[in-house]
Amino acid sequence: MKSIKISEALRKERKSLGLTQGQMIKESKISVTHYSKMEMDKIEFLLMI
């Protein structure tokens, strides 16, 4: 099974769409600073399923 960090997946998807971080979060309620930290793996993610 292939694994990828969420931070890497976010950056890869954003770049494949040709978007800046600001454009990527335009419709969200997070700041560019917060999103940047997500891409840099500086924030822990909690996934509940």
Automatic annotation (TrEMBL):
Stored InterPro entries: Lambda_DNA-bd_dom_sf
Protein name: Transcriptional regulator
